[in-house]
Structure formats: C-alpha cells, structure tokens
From TrEMBL, chain A:
Segments traversing the membrane: none
Species, as recorded: Candidatus Obscuribacter phosphatis
SUPFAM superfamilies registered for this protein in UniProt: TRAP-like
UniProt protein name: TIGR00266 family protein
Amino acid sequence: MEYQLLHEGSNAVLKVCLQPGEHIKAESGAMVAKTGHLVIEGKMWGGAMNALKRSVLGGETFFFQEVSATEGAGEVLLAPSPPGDVKVIHISGGQDYFVKSGCMLAAMDQIEMDTKAQKLTSGLFSGAGLFVLHLKGNGGFAVSAFGAIMEIDIPPGEKYMVDNGHLVAWSGDTSYEIVKAGKNWVSSFTSGEGLGCMFTGPGRVYIQTRNPEAFGAWVRRFVPTTSG
Amino acid sequence: MLVSEGFSARYYEKGQPQSRDVEVQFASSKVVVCHAGECLQELDYSRALISLTGQDGLRVKIEPPGSAWAVIFNDETILPKLLAFTRSSALGKQIEELIARAEKRKGHDRRYWTTVIGTISVFCLVFYFSFALMVDMAVSRVDPEFESKIGDFLAKLHEAENKEVPQKERVERIGKRLLTALGKTPYRFRFFYDDSEEINAFAYPGGVVVVNEGLLKTAESDDEVAGVVGHEIGHVIHRDTLKAAVRNMGVGAIFMILFGGAGDDKRVLALLNMAKLGESLEGLRFGRDQEAKADTFGVDLTIKAGYDPHGLVKFFQKLDSKTEKEHTKIPDALSILSTHPMTKDRIAAINAEIERVQKK
C-alpha cells in the first residue's frame, strides 16, 4: 500500500493507493474523493464492544469507514474536518502509540486500535482526555491535528514539556506527568501557561502547533454577543 | 557460562532519532544489546540501571548511568526471566525490587480504577434514586404565582389562535363549572380549545388546560369532557405538570432553582426557559401514582360540580373500544392515559372512588 501526503500544512490530504485486495480504515466522513470502483463500507472496527468503547470513552466515531480495492486497484483521498496537518506514523516490532481522541484519521495495514484510560490527573489536565486511543501492530496510521504537526524525539533520560492542549500522539515507551509550567503556581498562571505535560525519554511525541480550544476562545472574542 | 536467549526490546540512543528493534542477551555479568547480528552495546550488571517506565508504568528500561542509551522491554513479565540470569548480581537485586514494585503498581492500578468506577456507580445510583426527591424539592421552591406566570405565557400562545367557535364556548363552560366547584385556588385556570383531530387534552403548569377537537368529538356528553378536564385540573393542582416539566428541564435547572441564590428573577428565568419548550410540554408524561391521584381528584371534582362522575369511565371505555375496532393507536401524549395504557384496574379504582364519595 502506497501513500502520499498532499498539500501538507493547513490543508493536508492523505492520498492512499490501494492494490487489489488491500483496504484502509478511516475516520467516518474523512473521505474526500476516490476511484469509482473502490468500495466503502461502514464498519465497527474491532467489534461492537470496542467500537462502543472508542466512541463513548475515546470520543471517536462509532463507525469507521473501510475503503477496499475488491474490484481492482484505485486511490482514495482522506482529510480531517478541521484545517491542519496530517502525519503518518509507522510502527512495528511491539512499538505502540497513544493518540489523543479526535486526532485519528486513518489506519493502514495491520494496525489494532483500542481505548486506554489515563491517570485521572493526566486525563483531566493534559488536554488529551481521560481516555485515549492505543495503537499497536505493524504498519502505518495517520493522525490529524489543528495547525502543523511536529515530531519531537526525546533522548533517553531527558525531559521535555508540552503545553496541554498541544498533544497529538506519543509513543508508549515514553511517559508523562502533569506539572506546573512555571517555577511556582503564581508564575505558572501569570505566564498564561498553567499546566503542562512533562515527558521523560526515550520516546517520540507529536504535537500540534495550535491549540484548538485556545483558538476557539480567541475567535469568541470577536463574535458579537449583542445585536444592534 | 550461562547465556540467556535474546529478548526483544527497543533500543534508543542519544543523537539517533529512531528506535531500533534489538535482541538483548544476559551473559554471565553483562547485558549485550544486538541488532542484526551486530553488538551495539555491552553493559556490566554492576553499572546497569533498571526501572519501570512507559505510559502504563509497567515497561522495563535498562540503561547505563548518564542514559547515553536505553533498551525498553514491552512489559514487566520479562522481569522473572531476567532474574534467572542475574540473581546473584547487583542487577538481580534491582530486578527483585522491581518485581515487587510492579506488583504493587498493578495492585494500585486495580484499586484506583475500582475506586473510580465504584464512586461513579454510587454517585449514579444515589442520583437516580434521589432525582424524584430533588424534583419535588425544586418544585416546592417554586411559588404558585410564578407557575401562573408560566401559564400566562403559554396561554398567550393559545389565545392568539383560539377563535370564537361553539367548541371553545363548550370547553370554557365546562371548565368554569368545575372551577366553581373547586373553590379557591392559587392558579389562574384558563381553558382552551384546539382544532386538532388528535384525541387529546393536556394541562400546562399554572392552570392552562387545552382540549382538542378530536377529544370533543369522541366524548359526546359534557360529563365525559368534564371527567377529562377534572383529571387535568388534578394534574395542575398536584403540580404534576410542573414536576414533569422540571424533570425534563434537567439537573441544571433543578440546581438553579434549589441553589440559585433564591433570586426570584433567576427562578423565573429558569421557568421561562422551560416555557420556551411549550410545544413539547404537551407530551409530558406522568407516573402511575400521579395518574391515579388525578383520576380520584377528577371524580371528586365532577361530583361536586354536578356532573355524572361515570363520564370519565365511559370516555375510557369508548377510547378502548375505538382502539380495538379501528386498530388505531391512542397517542402517547394523551395525558390522561400518559405512560400507562388504560386498564381494568384503573376503571375499577375510579368506580370505587365514585362509590366511596356517593356513600358519604
């Protein structure tokens, strides 16, 4: 299965070329266009219970769409709803990733997806939610974000802080704890940063360069609240 | 020399962005990290640092002091296997401690989630069983005058389309006669006619009673209409309509009424928000007990007003036979039937009440 990222940046599109017999799973509503004979089916990925867990706890759609090349090779274009980047993450050999709910776009090859609970503090303050998606297996999966996506490699023994609300995905080998962004609580909040996620290496973290909640709050400042 | 099998792990090195899949062997006194047959690192047991890491805190990391590199095993189940090769070394002692820590961690996780799920379940159960009580408490905080204001608001919706037709006069005449029998009431009762063919009658909070054309046609005599209207008046007097509306408004509104600083305006605002739902208030449903009490109230009131109290029973029977003959479904919204289909028990209870009152 070959893929190509087009218009990378705020209007990214994932183009996947399917060979006969191949298929790709994508978030419900993510398809932009496809070759006529590719077949689309709504599926509960991993069975009804997993689909229920993902949709109720993980904030993902109950149904995923499966695009199959049962009647010959073809291509499909996939894109997320919000403006932003798309990245494909490859995993193999026992590697795994955790993905913030709502950031999953598509999964290729032999990827398994489940929902995992985070610690209460992480769930409440990381901006990733109490339940996150857990992906493992062999192959690639695509994540989407608001703004651009940056990958950050954290070497063994080193720490790296990400502002909450900017997390997209992180490798299972790394771990994070919620910390105050400043030296003390006063400086944390007066600096406007509040809380952050302190990751410990080794591992890789994908972040989005814009915080959708903060952007929403910024837009609301310009929305008239009274008429006349 | 005892050499272990190669255990799969991921190898990370400073300056190398990607991890590599490696095999880790434990040989006499050192850890050997290999990738594709090539030895990448060797680390003496005496210098090796082992710890739990990862998102779940149960992955095993081995690294040298200074963390120039690290290998990570997927889970803690590898620890007893490693112990077999490192038992008498410094690393072995660390592994023994780590096994105990991993067990403690798993136990902690189990207790943590049991506590979280248990707390949420208890909260849900308490909420479920105390919801009716909260609704009653919230309703008891609402002044009947406020309730009447809601009625005024909703009455305007009907006044605008209520034409002067004989049916309207009929509904008002029956309603007023029942009100005379009712005596003093904190509510401003108003009776409206609606030209809908649906067999229905309903009451809004504050004393607005609406009777449909469909019901007037089905209930031929005034006694039957009086039975239904008396039943609806009962729902208003018992505040069933307000309770159902408050229940539909949800927890937020209940807390606003209960703890909203007792500010009258806030409570009125909450109730007016409810009034915006006026169209859906027709579909309010009542419980079995509320229906039974409204039946009893309706019977007593019709007797006091000089109507034949069997009118309500006749109307019920007529509805029952109409449903059977025409295979029509009586709308769920019909508030006198509400959540329960008409039953023989209900008719028997009405007859018993008539007998009780008439014996006095």
